[in-house]
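Severity: low
Component: inverse-folding endpoint
Summary: output formatting inconsistent between runs
Steps to reproduce: submit the following structure tokens with default settings.
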């Protein structure tokens, strides 16, 4: 009987030790959140003054890779002031749209700083592009139009993204003009700061 108690006690201790070790290993496997800056991402377009529409190719960006990509593994794409997300449906009134083959989504905060957003919201709050409407609106979206092609990012506009492959990121557009020099000749160049969590499904953004 005494031997049986000893064996059971040893098994319990071994189980607890193994369980703790496993949890510690899982915590250690989390990769650190990344803070990055993209400067002068060129997203040119041609503007048709009669139809008041842009034409040209969208520039696709992946937060996981931290750069422009050519394949379908993109999260958001830029063309002049238009920003589309790789999820949902084609809007239908945007010329030269590219198919949404992923499940990315985004949410625009209108009165926050980048440091205010400590974690991504619940998935139900995110939006995808849909017929007739961009997830990131133009009118009351991320910028103010100052005339003569001058675009100024609005203060407090933070975009949180659920990426194409189930990760989370947040970004703040700092400038729409090359090297921050606001003029018609320098437009269509995005500079933005972003934070990306490389751990799939983890909403932590700080």
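Observed output (run 2 of 3):
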């Amino acid at each position: 009987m005494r031997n049986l108690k000893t064996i059971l006690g040893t098994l319990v201790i071994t189980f607890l030790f193994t369980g703790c070790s496993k949890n510690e290993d899982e915590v250690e496997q989390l990769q650190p959140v990344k803070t990055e800056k993209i400067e002068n991402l060129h997203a040119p377009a041609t503007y048709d003054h009669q139809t008041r529409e842009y034409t040209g190719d969208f520039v696709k960006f992946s937060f996981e890779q931290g750069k422009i990509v050519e394949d379908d593994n993109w999260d958001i794409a830029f063309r002049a002031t238009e920003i589309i997300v790789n999820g949902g449906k084609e809007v239908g009134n945007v010329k030269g749209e590219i198919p949404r083959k992923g499940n990315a989504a985004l949410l625009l905060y209108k009165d926050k700083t980048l440091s205010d957003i400590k974690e991504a919201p619940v998935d139900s709050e995110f939006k995808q592009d849909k017929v007739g409407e961009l997830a990131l609106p133009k009118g009351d979206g991320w910028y103010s139009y100052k005339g003569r092609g001058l675009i100024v990012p609005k203060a407090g506009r933070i975009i949180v993204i659920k990426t194409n492959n189930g990760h989370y990121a947040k970004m703040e557009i700092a400038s729409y003009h090359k090297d921050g020099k606001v003029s018609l000749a320098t437009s269509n160049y995005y500079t933005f700061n972003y934070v990306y969590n490389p751990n799939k499904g983890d909403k932590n953004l700080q």
